[in-house]
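[[Per-residue structure]]
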Amino acid sequence: MQNRRYSLLIATVMSLTVSTGLAAAETAKFQGTVRIPVYNVPDSDFIDYSFGQMLEKAGYRVEFVKIDYTAHFTALEFGDVDLSPAVWGTSKDLIDKTLASGSVKNSGSLGVQTRESWWYPNYVGDLCPGLPDWKALKDPACIKALTTPNSDGKINYLGTPPDFAAYDDERIKALDLQVHITLPGTVGTMVATMQGAIQKKEPIIGWGMTPHWLYGSGQGKFVEFPLFDDKCPTDPSWGVNPNEVWDCALSTGEIVKLYNSEFAKKAPELLRILTNFKLTSDDVAKGISRQDIDGAPPEQAAKEWIDAHKEVWAKWLQ
């Protein structure tokens, strides 16, 4: 009987240890509000809401601040937002400038590789056989094959929402391309327009990115521009055009996580959680797909990931 009581006591202690491990992690130390930016961009918003909802599960107060993606770098510098878990490494010039301010630091990679560049459906490669080499876009026959009634005799190109740092105007000028740009208002419109063109087999080139359920699906390819170099955005003498900058692609890289350094002093445990936070390319692609294809809001897509992966994110809180 005594041994039985002893065994029950040990079992109870072990149970309490397991059950209180997460509870201890869920006891928030920072008592203020954590401000996280969201941009109405499906990939970043999925990541930002996933991180924020995880913090809410742990007992923190979170405010999601709607802001332009480019403007959010300045907001981080001035402490108007605290943490930014979804910064694409392709924004290298913006990241470098922000980090140089001294008020923002990088807590490392999310674990997701990224690419952003011009993208075309596979059938467009038949219309312009020199692709994916960018020089094919200078061929008169290719230009003619990729025009539409609304593209003014130029290549039909679907650009980015206005707040993207794509540098398309600069690239078109530097590489002397005959391109007509149509700017969508949002990423959702951009993707839907590309889908519509693919269904109709229309001649089109557009901005693409990975991870993404469409642009990473094998239905198309990226245009291969000259590889990015740190000198490309600032030194005209670098590259194929000695008189212009941005005669190259954007940099490839990873999604990184930035934070305001003054905020980190007040909430060091949140910096540790941010550093621990990781996702996969498949996680992000599925989160985008839930929004683009199924019409789910980013908050719902994030909640589904949080609900399905508690055993993963609970470890990041410990």
User: Anything to note?
Assistant: The longest strand covers residues 104-121.
